[in-house]
Amino acid sequence: MNGRILISGASIAGLTLAHWLARHGFSPTIVERAPELRTGGNGVDVSGDAIAVAERMGLMGRIRQLAADVHGMKFVDAADRAVARIDTRDDASVEIMRGDLVALLREATDDVEILFGDSIQALKQDDHGVTVTFEHHPARHFDLVIGADGMHSNLRGLAFGPEERFIEHKDHYFAFANADGRLGEDRWVTMFNTPGKMTGIYRSGNHAQAKAYFILRSERLDYDHRDVAEHKRLVAEAFADQPWQPVRGLLATALADPDFYFDALAQVQMDSWSNGRIALVGDAAWCASPASGAGAELALVGAYRLAGELAAAGGDHQVAFARYDSAHRPLVGLR
Length: 335
Hints:
This protein is an alpha/beta fold and 335 residues long. Helix content is 31%, strand content 31%.
């Protein structure tokens, strides 16, 4: 049946996959590099088929209760005067903070083993399964291994090759962090633009903590995607000259946030999401870039579909992985 399945990454995709695998009778284990769940992040949309998936998980009511309650986007000039507003409220989707959604998904997988503070160091697959060597835990044997560990997927690098083969940069970088809750207008995303740069304040109606956005247009930068100190330096240098008065306060609080996040706006392009007994799901497989606004939808639906195909195929990974790829790829192409 290929019942023992290791999932790399306690992400939206990873937690959703673990939930559905367990419901279908498989025995999933998650390995997560971070010492605990990553509760930071921006607002994500639960929309389209993802709403049906969340309903079947019994989570949609809670998701609506925890909705970010943001009315729209407000554009301002350097003097902080509003020059335009766009109402983005939409009954067809629900925006929720990524951390809130991850917490709900963890509740739905509370009986699933998670190896926190560890990651996969090496893989050796044969006709009977995959032997996994971890950085800290003893080596273990699994029937299948699934990567749900994001755009810079460690598992993808081990099983498919270096990320340079699969990541297509879109000439932009973005940062996201906590900000002073007194900045910006309640229930609005306040945005200030200059050529090649955007600074924003995200004020959820259901959260006291504001969020800071920084988006920079640039050719590819040479940096370590895990070096947070370097990320902060890049953002501080790029946005120090912005004429909008709140920028100084935004930078001060954002740069002090230990969960400061910085990365490229990029897409992952792969001809296949599986290699033998190893497969990928979520941003590790098809990252549509944060600019698409479809990351949560694709993760929820893709994980649900992958688990369902494994169940329908009685654990036959060759049949299930092919069906999963064929069925889900058209939705990824639309997003």
